[in-house]
Amino acid sequence: MNILNISTAILVMDMQNTILGNYSKSNLETVIQNVKQCINKARKEKITIIYVVLGFRKGFPEVSKNNSMFSGFKERLNHLEVEEISKIHAEIEPEPEDIIVKKHRISAFSGNDLEMILRASNINHLVLTGVATSGVILSTFTEAFDKDYSLTVISDACKDRDDEVHKVLTEKVFPKVADVVTTEEWIK
Predict the structure, then answer these.
(1) CA 23 distance to own-chain centroid
(2) What residues make up the domain containing 161?
(3) CB-hemisphere CA count at 13 Å for 138?
């Protein structure tokens, strides 16, 4: 990839406590540390850092009863304050210069101004991290590819509850049209 004409942003997606709570702690430690290393490299290299979080208004007016996934999410989290739902894991909290984008569905582009932010900054290369590989990573990957972004997926800075699904996506699906690297490879 010729990086001379590439403007890059790293997307840190769905790394909020309410979502991470669906994973066992032991399964997440490595991913959180890898995401943290990627963020540190991005800061050092002056790469735009965009946190994408799932977020809703009080009462979840964005959630349709027809959407079984999000209506279940609404039932489980309706007792929480909206700020609590979008709270990012403490080890990778954003800094004031980072951008935070709220989404209302699976893809990072859903119901927000992410694409406007990327276009305004002439960003044409996205580095994807977060959970879940079969959720936000796959949905964002597909939509970003359709929008002509160059893509890099950091395989060990992503996680899925199903290890086999993660493996198939990162070893067979994503490499067909994108770079798939480890945290160590990306940092170098």
Answers:
(1) 16
(2) 3-187
(3) 15
